[in-house]
């Protein structure tokens, strides 16, 4: 099935179907598909939204980006707004309210009943990039002494409002987490059995302050559908579902890839020239400063270059190989930190490995370039100078590629920001210094 | 809870608890946690595995890497092996058998009953990186005219063997997909209702040949727990579950990040020096060839540099800014292709935007560097030459950053492989050519 064709077809169905067919269509549609239509046909969005039931719009807002949620909501008349807000889940409401102005937020609160408003206020107190900031309040809970039958009855009543029904949490009178039941277990158990007999007691939970990326790794490790969020007294505060986590992991990885490539997070591939220039230019100016640093190093040796111009010819090899070696190590280290595979515990072992790699590849490339330099310049000492400086620079490059992200991590700065700037500055400056410095020392053998 | 402390504690529990406590511990443990212990304490792994029930070992193998699965299985005695293979799910068996030698695979087949062996043979015929290669055969299916009560009964019997029980698929007599039931719906429906009344008819399915990365994007878009896999006649062949997809997305992203950084996929951060050198050296030699190309460009202009040595000083700025501009565009394009946001349809718009960005940032940086060159060299024409070549090179850099990955995509090569090599070769060679070429033309104004 062609997805593109589908959008056009779906648009006409959403606008033109008669009442009865429309209702059965809506029952069977996925909100993400309707959102595609709304995004692609901006002129039709009011007509499409006006026809949709409030519960479906709430689902669509679940799928939308944070800012888009409010944008879509604000085109609707006030009574509808209120109804939709009532249907939205607390985590999505939090994301939306976190992305709008205080005045806009105030309007949202006036459209909520006081219980929902209190929940929202609580969720807004957490750092948006922690477990508390991404959790929802709509979870199902029972007590230990209930029976399977009572639990199923409770489920029939409460299921429509819950984020997920696949796990039901068992809490004590102080809301402390005692166990978890899966819907699967419930369905295959005897109706008279007690919750305490069939529940799973070793519940893996997430502290409310945990960083969202770390939460993502726990989901990847355990393959859970949902995870409960608890405070430091093990009181259950909310749940996180895997679909939200998938989005977070995608965003975090895009951010890492962008930062490694010197692009600011949030740049859209289909944005305008002005937006992109605004985001990229600051980075280019930072890079310009570091390039000027490298140029200054070269300028120290202009006298040497004037006497042996072939040195200028070999400068791109020095800079290029140092940069590549540094980037290789940097990539491994940044990704290792992001995936939690590199820790401060195994850091020393990894450092020794990287230095070993720098020396080994430095010798291989150094000997090759030394031979090349010898034949190109016709002087053995020229080969020695370029070969030795390759070895020194490539070893320094692995060191820089290792140390820069770890130092940033210690300073609580995203290691991916290490990227091009710091590491290639080190390799450029040191590379030119080794190469042109050695050449200056041995200048009498080179002319 | 400290995860590190947990591993040590868990190891002693697994080895030392008495029979009864051990059994209740195992019921409550997550296989991923046991795998952590087995990985960390290699000397204890036979003892730990020997004590574990076969079903738990099968779950642990589910969590293990492809090659690790067979490694763990092979330390066990033959009768246990057979029992564990019988408990493993078909998708994990496929991954394992796909990663071992034909002789080892033959031994696995001798330990299987003929029905499971046929399933496995079928799964092995699919490309491992497509929907067919990652799906499992263990799904639950019912027919339209069954009642909710009959379905629940079927569920009680079949649930233990299924990959997931949260969705039950409705098939016709030719195994064609007609609808889907969620366990949630089933639980809240009347026991006498027919499946056809409560099923969801518009099932979103995945063609068996779809690339696994595209499957990943569908899961991200729809937030599904599982998706059915169908052939071109809509016959249901298997299911894919979200936890497998999360792993695939992580692997695909790591691969992209590694390739952008010039690192071969599969390099382990804690591997040996020899392994890393073997993987990185070929890439460094490819880069050396392209650096030699840049050096050759410079060597054409040795005569000019000999007369104006300050040109050598500015070379790092030309190369650096071109490389950074190209990398920014490359990053946006490669990630856009990976996330499906850049298509051949919107490519023209994005190309025009990138050229616009190249020209705009080129003018900003060009004017700055022109002024710098003017003051540094004390000659206005020097400023003009370096400024103009920055503008030309940065525009060319955005073009290269855009075109190289798209051309690779057209040639069915992973666009992330575009990385440093091709783009920075273009920016180095063109940058030096523009800069030193213009300097040669205007040489009389520079000396």
From TrEMBL, chains A, B:
Q: Which coarse location class applies to the principal site listed for this UniProt protein? A: membrane
* Record GO terms (molecular function): magnesium ion transmembrane transporter activity; metal ion binding
Per its UniProt record, what SUPFAM superfamilies does this chain match?
CBS-domain pair (SSF54631), MgtE membrane domain-like (SSF161093), MgtE N-terminal domain-like (SSF158791)
Q: Tell me where the transmembrane regions lie.
A: 281-301, 355-376, 382-408, 420-446
User: What does the UniProt entry say about where the protein is found?
Assistant: Cell membrane; Membrane
Q: How does it sit in the membrane?
A: Multi-pass membrane protein
Q: Where is the CBS domain?
A: 135-198, 199-255
Which InterPro entries does the entry link to? CBS_dom (IPR000644), CBS_dom_sf (IPR046342), Mg_transptr_MgtE_intracell_dom (IPR006668), MgtE_N_sf (IPR038076), MgtE_transporter (IPR006669), SLC41_membr_dom (IPR006667), SLC41_membr_dom_sf (IPR036739)
Keywords from the UniProt entry: CBS domain, Cell membrane, Magnesium, Membrane, Metal-binding, Transmembrane, Transmembrane helix, Transport
Which Pfam family, just one, is annotated for this protein?
MgtE_N
Looking at the record's lineage, which domain of life comes first? Answer: Bacteria
Q: Which GO terms describe its cellular component?
A: plasma membrane
UniProt record similarity statement:
Belongs to the SLC41A transporter family.
The entry describes its oligomerization and partners as: Homodimer.
Q: What does this protein do?
A: Acts as a magnesium transporter.
Q: What is this protein called?
A: Magnesium transporter MgtE
């Amino acid at each position: 099935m062609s997805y593109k064709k589908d959008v056009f077809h779906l648009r006409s169905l959403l606008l033109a179907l008669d009442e009865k067919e429309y209702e059965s269509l809506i029952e069977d549609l996925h909100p993400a598909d309707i959102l595609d239509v709304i995004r692609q046909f901006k002129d039709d969005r009011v007509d499409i939204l006006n026809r949709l039931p409030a519960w479906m719009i709430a689902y669509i807002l679940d799928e939308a980006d944070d800012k888009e949620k409010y944008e879509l909501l604000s085109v609707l008349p006030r009574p509808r707004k209120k109804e939709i807000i009532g249907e939205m889940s607390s985590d999505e409401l939090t994301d939306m309210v976190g992305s709008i102005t205080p005045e806009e937020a105030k309007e949202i609160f006036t459209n909520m009943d006081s219980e929902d408003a209190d929940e929202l206020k609580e969720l807004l107190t957490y750092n948006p990039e922690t477990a508390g900031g991404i959790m929802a309040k709509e979870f199902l809970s029972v007590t230990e002494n209930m029976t399977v039958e009572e639990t199923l009855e409770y489920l029939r009543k409460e299921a429509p409002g819950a984020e997920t029904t696949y796990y039901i949490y068992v809490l004590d009178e102080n809301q402390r987490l005692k166990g978890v039941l899966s819907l699967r277990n419930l369905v295959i158990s005897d109706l008279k059995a007690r919750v305490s007999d069939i529940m799973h007691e070793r519940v893996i939970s997430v502290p409310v302050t945990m960083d969202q990326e770390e939460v993502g790794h726990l989901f990847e490790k355990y393959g859970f559908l949902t995870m409960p969020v608890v405070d430091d007294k093990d009181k259950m505060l909310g749940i996180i579902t895997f679909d939200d986590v998938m989005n977070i992991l995608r965003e975090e990885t895009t951010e890492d890839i962008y930062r490694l490539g010197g692009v600011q997070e949030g740049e859209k591939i289909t944005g305008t020239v002005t937006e992109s220039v605004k985001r990229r230019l600051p980075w280019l100016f930072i890079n310009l400063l570091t390039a000027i640093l490298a140029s200054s190093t070269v300028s120290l040796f202009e006298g040497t270059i004037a006497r042996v111009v072939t040195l200028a010819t070999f400068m791109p090899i020095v800079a290029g190989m140092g940069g590549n070696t540094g980037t290789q190590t940097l990539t491994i280290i940044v990704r290792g930190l992001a995936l939690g595979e590199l820790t401060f515990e195994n850091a020393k072992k990894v450092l020794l490995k990287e230095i070993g790699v720098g020396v080994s590849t430095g010798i291989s490339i150094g000997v090759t370039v030394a031979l090349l330099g010898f034949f190109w310049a016709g002087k053995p000492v020229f080969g020695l100078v370029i070969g030795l400086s390759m070895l020194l620079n490539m070893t320094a490059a692995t060191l820089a590629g290792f140390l820069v992200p770890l130092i940033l991590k210690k300073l609580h700065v995203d290691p991916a920001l290490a990227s091009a700037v710091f590491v290639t500055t080190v390799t450029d400056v040191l590379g030119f210094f080794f190469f042109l410095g050695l050449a200056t020392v041995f200048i009498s053998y080179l002319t």
